């Protein structure tokens, strides 16, 4: 099995790489650097920091997937990974989340009656659902909660917006900015998809003093240290 892990920024990539390795940087088109892992004793895991937001995530993921396909060694699984905001109280700071759905929370239209996703406008999709057996296995191995993770283009900064999102997406555990974009590229290439997030802050009013980025990155390393055993079991 070959696995591509896509993060937004280098700090998240480095946290994932700290769980295994060694890793060797390889240049991809567009100035991206793919960190290729040693497959000895487990699945081959490569890690890419593709940029912030769903568009950058989709473009970077598609670039890596295309390069792998041209090399004759396609990826079978793509994982969107990183830190994110957790919806309190279900996803406290430092917790690990494996998404059972990856949903584009703000892809649609505002109307006098409220927000309409593109699916209700008659086109597109807003949700990807990973294989349930994969979700269960990885969540068990990582000690993670499972539930919806929302992809947003604008990070939530108010209690009102947080309430709106939870009303439209009951059970949502976290928000981040890349999962849906990664999933769009993975599905287009026939690869499986997964999203793993660790919680660095609460979704709602922005309080930088309350963020716990360091512990969330440490938790991300721990989650990926447990991942190979889950994938081997499957």
From TrEMBL:
Q: Which residues form the Nucleoside phosphorylase domain?
A: 3-204
GO MF terms, alphabetically ordered: hydrolase activity, acting on glycosyl bonds
> InterPro entries, per this entry?
FL_hydrolase_MqnB, Nucleoside_phosphorylase_d, Nucleoside_phosphorylase_sf
Q: Which UniProt keywords apply?
A: Glycosidase, Hydrolase, Menaquinone biosynthesis
Q: In which pathway does it act?
A: Quinol/quinone metabolism; menaquinone biosynthesis
Which SUPFAM superfamilies does the entry mention? Purine and uridine phosphorylases
Q: Which reaction does it catalyse?
A: futalosine + H2O = dehypoxanthine futalosine + hypoxanthine
Query: Which EC number applies?
Result: 3.2.2.26
- The EC class name is hydrolase
**Which superkingdom does the taxonomy of this entry point to?**
Bacteria
State what this protein does. Catalyzes the hydrolysis of futalosine (FL) to dehypoxanthine futalosine (DHFL) and hypoxanthine, a step in the biosynthesis of menaquinone (MK, vitamin K2).
- Protein family (similarity comment): Belongs to the PNP/UDP phosphorylase family. Futalosine hydrolase subfamily.
> Protein name, please?
Futalosine hydrolase
Gene behind the chain: mqnB
């Amino acid at each position: 099995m070959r696995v591509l892990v896509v993060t937004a920024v280098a700090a998240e990539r480095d946290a994932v790489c700290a769980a295994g390795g060694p890793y060797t940087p390889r240049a991809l088109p567009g100035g991206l650097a793919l960190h290729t892992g040693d497959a000895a004793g487990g699945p081959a895991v490569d890690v890419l920091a593709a940029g912030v937001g769903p568009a950058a995530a989709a473009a970077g993921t598609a670039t890596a997937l295309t390069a792998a396909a041209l090399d004759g060694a396609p990826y079978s699984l793509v994982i969107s990974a990183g830190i994110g905001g957790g919806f309190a109280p279900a996803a406290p700071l430092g917790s690990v989340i494996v998404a059972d759905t990856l949903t584009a929370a703000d892809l649609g239209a505002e109307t006098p009656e409220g927000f309409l996703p593109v699916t209700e406008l008659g086109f597109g999709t807003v949700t990807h659902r990973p294989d349930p057996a994969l979700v269960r296995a990885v969540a068990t191995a990582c000690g993670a909660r499972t539930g919806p993770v929302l992809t947003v283009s604008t990070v939530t900064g108010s209690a009102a917006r947080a309430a709106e999102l939870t009303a439209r997406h009951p059970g949502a555990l976290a928000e981040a900015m890349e999962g849906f974009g990664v999933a769009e590229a993975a599905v287009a290439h026939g690869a499986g998809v997964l999203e793993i997030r660790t919680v660095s802050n609460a979704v709602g009013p922005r309080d930088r003093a309350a963020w716990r980025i360091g512990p969330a990155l440490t938790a991300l390393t721990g989650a990926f240290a447990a991942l190979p055993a889950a994938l081997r079991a499957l």
